[in-house]
Prior knowledge:
The structure holds two protein chains of two kinds. Chain A is of the alpha/beta class.
Amino acid sequence: xxxxxxxxxxMIRRQFKNMILEIGNHDVIEAVNGENAIAVYKENKPDLVxxxxxxxxxxxxxxxxxxxxxxxxxxxxxxxxVGTKENLSEALKAGAxxxxxxxxxxxxxxxxxxxxxxxx
Amino acid sequence: xxxxxxxxxxxNNEFITSxxxxxxxxxxxxxxxxxxxxxxxxxxxxxKQVTKINNLQKTQDKRFGDIAxxxxxxxxxxxxxxxxxxxxxxxxxxQTIVDLxxxxxxxxxxxxxxxxLKTGISDDSFxxxxxxxxxxxxxxxxxxxxxxxxxxVTLFYKNIVRFITSEVYISESFKLTEExxxxxxxxxxxxGEKQIYTAYTGEENVLIQFSxxxxxxxxxxxxxxxxxxxxxxxxxxxxxxxxxxxNKGMTLNLKIQNFKENYLANCGNLYxxxxxxxxxxxxxxxxx
Lengths: 120, 288
């Protein structure tokens, strides 16, 4: 599966990439903010996107809107330390398919990967 | 957590040297509490009875508890109580200090009373602290009344313990003045129903170790990557705080976190809460 990780933190991108590669032999690509994520999505058409919310230039919610415009079937999972009801509801409204609270636990990541791997 | 707070008290009041305290922390994990010490602490046995049981143990292949029951010094209920308390944090600390020869048991008991007196910790709070609860002890160090900010500081303490180091204690908060200049500051604003300015600072060598532990990566320099890691820690902490507040019905949002050099406190209502860790000092700054 081709997976896009979008987070402004290099540490999160590295850790998350390592966790994904530990679970399976996936192709992981990265973006550093929402605007970058839209461009990377357009070029690479990943099967799954993990998207942070609070980012410079364009935040995660704005990025989902942009990605859904390109591909209405895009599968975007929000990945944030701010797992509030408000953010969850906003993310789902924007078109996200799931929400993961940071710090990410291996089991939860594995569950989302398994779920969307079957659909990809 | 009692261990860290009380250890610091011993150091500040020169009951123990810095090297001795380090040695205590090093040895504490290997300390197994002696039942005699717990029984004395509970008032079930006196020192004479404990010595007698210890002497009997030298001639009989029996456990301390079995002999105490045989000699009718303890009943079964009392034995059960002291067995349950074998992991009691303050007793493990006492045992380690006594075993290392830095204090006698009597001296430890005296210093413990002085600690309660000086810190103004009530007996109830002290019991909670011994049991690992921390809120009241942290609150006693904060010189402001804002309940939400107190919760914020307590969560920061818990996150330092959870993600960085369990060897941490805080000292009294103080108001920042324009004379307080920090070399490196990580900051993030919390907006919404309550506006809070949050930041933390530390010296370069502390932040290098801090970022290494938090990321699990080898960090040798204070560079873009270690700055990114330190910023992410604040973001994670503030995110967890925001979630806690949201669960209590308060909606908050986070702005993007920043890194600043040569930071000068220029707001009238900023408080600093010093966190002392085995890595060095981390100052938490809150404005509200």
